[in-house]
Amino acid sequence: MKTLPGKELAAAVRAQTQAEAAAGPQPRLAVVVATADEASLWYVRSIAKAAAGVGIACDLVDLGPGAAPDRIGETLARLSADPNVHGVMMQTPLPAGASAQELAGAIDPRKDVDGANPLSLGRLAAGLPAFPPATAAAVMALLDHYEVELEGRRAVVAGRSTVVGKPLAHLLLDRNATVTVCHSRTRDLASVTSTAEVLVAAVGRAGLIGAAHVAPGAVVIDVGTNPTEDGGLTGDIASGEVAAVAGALTPVPGGVGPVTTALLLRHTARAANLP
Ligand code: NAD
């Protein structure tokens, strides 16, 4: 079985993004945070560090875990209207009572570098230019990087969230894959996932996908990031047993994750250069 790491691709995307960022006015990304969740705060700090590395300015706008939904929405609208800000991202989780999908409507689609505004998803579904969520884009970038053929092939996506599963299904359809989406109510998950030539797991349950869920030779992309007791991360794929069946598998960590951050920055550089 072949392992499909994301680090080399992420480095290539960052190098290209650095060149794009240097070609015009400095791109600026604003990340709105309203949580005390350590993993989320670690993630936004890692975005800021990666941004600095490619010449993109990054403002962390921390509203605190008690921020009212109105304040979050107003902040997103203010940043969207600021000509010096090119990309606007809202980190989840949000405070109780705040709807990410409602609030993301306040992000200008032209600055919606993590594809959170429902308008971006609608445009994606209609085949119109839009920024896809960086994670969904990262899955496609990895498949392309490793030259995985999609046209006419059976692709199964496990997970139907607005941030990963749904946009990814549209991106795969757009590439002429035959796409099936599974979710928490799918009966006999293994009977569906084992038909996949390309299988993407974006569920958030450690080791959910075992050898019985995977067709021999399938290309398997693991989006899941589940915390382990020792402070590490593990994916949705039971990699030990799946390795004996799959043709190729992305590692966790070091697969989809690094490409996601790199693409978020690429989207920001592109947003800064939109006519
Ligand atoms: P989510 O909780 O919003 O959605 C989970 C989806 O899984 C739902 O659509 C649900 O129907 C489905 N599901 C639940 N149980 C299932 C089951 N038994 N069988 C099939 N489907 C089932 O999660 P999300 O935000 O889409 O994230 C999914 C995973 O991807 C998480 O582990 C998250 O941490 C990870 N993630 C990783 C990155 C990255 O850059 N690597 C980015 C975003 C999310």
Task: Describe this entry's structure for a reader.
By secondary structure, the protein is an alpha/beta fold. It folds into 2 domains: 24-108, Rossmann fold (3-Layer(aba) Sandwich), CATH 3.40.50; 134-255, NAD(P)-binding Rossmann-like Domain (Rossmann fold), CATH 3.40.50.720. It has 10 helices and 11 strands. A 6-stranded parallel sheet has the order 1-11-8-7-5-6. Strands 3-2-4 form a 3-stranded parallel sheet, with helices on both faces. A two-stranded antiparallel ribbon has the order 9-10. Strand 9 (226-227) and strand 10 (233-234) form a beta hairpin. The longest helix is centred in the C-terminal third of the chain and has 17 residues, at 256-272. It is globular and about 50 Å long. It starts with a strand and ends with a helix. 47% of the residues are buried. The chain binds nicotinamide-adenine-dinucleotide (NAD). Nicotinamide-adenine-dinucleotide is lined by residues 135, 158-161, 163-165, 182-184, 186, 189, 202-205, 208, 223-226, 256-257, 260.
Mind sketching the topology for me?
Elements: E1 2-3, H1 7-22, E2 28-33, H2 38-53, E3 57-62, H3 69-81, E4 87-90, H4 100-104, H5 118-125, H6 134-145, E5 154-158, H7 165-174, E6 178-182, H8 189-193, E7 198-201, E8 219-222, E9 226-227, E10 233-234, H9 239-242, E11 248-249, H10 256-272
Parallel strand pairs: 1-11, 2-3, 2-4, 5-6, 5-7, 7-8, 8-11
Antiparallel strand pairs: 9-10
Feature tags:
single chain; 275 residues; alpha/beta; Rossmann fold; 2 domains; six-stranded parallel beta sheet; three-stranded parallel beta sheet; 10 helices; 11 strands; 39% helix; 15% strand; globular; binds nicotinamide-adenine-dinucleotide
